[in-house]
Sequence to fold (93 residues):
Amino acid sequence: MENLSPEHIVTIITIIVAGAAIVIGTMIPTWVEGQSAVKAIEGMARQPDASPQLRTAMLIALALLETASIYVLLIVLVLLFANPLVTRFFGGG
Fold:
């Protein structure tokens, strides 16, 4: 471990943090999407006449919730493949 350069240490830490971020950043929106779908289906079961409106609102909400996972993926990909920390702190990579 003492043979590693600071650039390698930053890269290793970035990989670990990126892995944790993708796990947490996709679990939470997925859980919220599931809760949203459950509530919409419960509403459809209680009031079948309102099903089209509930379905539309649910699909819009799910699309907006899914963007959180996409943003997490984007940030993780930037950290993994174009790590700005190495160039910022060490002047090159």
Summary: The two ends are 19 Å apart (CA to CA). The chain has a mean pLDDT of 88. Residues 41 and 54 are 8 Å apart (CA to CA).
